[in-house]
Amino acid sequence: MKHFFSKALAAALCLACMPAGSLHTFAAESSSIQSSCEGDIRVSSVSEEYGPGALLSGLGQYTSFQWYLDNQGTFLLSSLKQKFSSINYAHGFPHNNPDAVYLPLPGYNTAGYENLKAVAGIDLNIIPAWEQYDSSEEEKREVVVAIIDTGVDTAHPDLEGALWTNPGEIPDDGVDNDGNGYIDDIHGWNFYMDQASLCSGNEDSHGTHTAGIIAAGREGGGVSGIAGGSQVKVMVLKALGGPMGIGSPESIVKAIRYAEANGASICNLSLGTTRYYENLDQAIRDSNMLFVIAAGNGDDGGSGMDTDATPVYPASLPYDNIISVASLNYDGALAQSSNYGASSVDLAAPGSYILSTVPGESYAFYSGTSMAAPMVTGAAALLYSYRTDLELKDIRQALLDTVHPLDSLSGKTVSGGIVDVGAAFDWQKPQE
Ligand SMILES: [Ca+2]
Ligand SMILES: [Ca+2]
Ligand SMILES: [Ca+2]
Prior knowledge:
By secondary structure, the chain is α/β, with parallel strands linked by helices. Helix content is about 20%, strand content about 15%.
């Protein structure tokens, strides 16, 4: 087994003041409309004339801001700021626990984004995939996606129908009905607090956002998740918490084991650390799940790093069951804060100004590789559900083989491109 850990390099890595030895999630330059469990939706008047995708949902007041679904070249940050009453960072606390796993800090100054011009076609090409999925009469595979993150507001209306439900468990009766070792684990488990409750409020914004990217309903307004309204369901495994989104590698390892034991096949990890943990490495190496992992958001100054030279864990682990994901802007450039690596980062996905769910029936824009990874997780899950002829390792290959190549990603990622879901749906498995 190959070990990457380098003490000297570890200290150099972080989005902002992240010490060696912390695992954390990667949402940089987060722009929050609101993230509160009691919260209202603090959005000023929203017009559908801004941004792409206005027609994706008849009720979708937010869908028009999801540029990555169908980028028509009209998305403009300055317009966004005019439309929304508050655009703030979601996370802004220094990280100072040396033995933790945690949330990312905001990245660089976003001033350079004000007048960045969106480029048409820089998107997931998801529409053809949705059309195929919806029109096909073939039986779809049920796919459970484990989200190991902060918690998720499971009561968010846009996540109704998106959640995995443990079939053998009766809620709130104080009994471990299915005998899996966890009492009343209906939609997952809270490994951070070792309890069934999955949402504690603001601290669970990041996980709720991730869940929405993957599986928010395509119908009924709000946002549209990549695998929304499909046979894909998300299992909520809270392993990070507190105002700084801290957790331990042990919690993540337990969550990985739970996920696998309870039927998950794909696992989203929008988290990372500079420190090598043998137990985390082994849990991933020995797992049959496909892991989609955020590549990380750069160094102290918010500049993306080459993780071939400065690894980030677990994204940089060399296993075939990992897809490491970089973050792309709406103009097709690699996000300034996104890590990259010709051999350690597999592909890129949209990650700047991503609108998704946060606790309290709210929505927020976050940015970073934390948002790019669940794009790929959603794509992988939808593809795995649709292509019942494929195995998980084929899903990874299909996504890598069918990327839309971009000059900005050449030499910076293994595949040199942005994930193209429509093309992946038509992928042909090579004859052996
Ligand atoms: Ca149980
Ligand atoms: Ca029970
Ligand atoms: Ca929705």
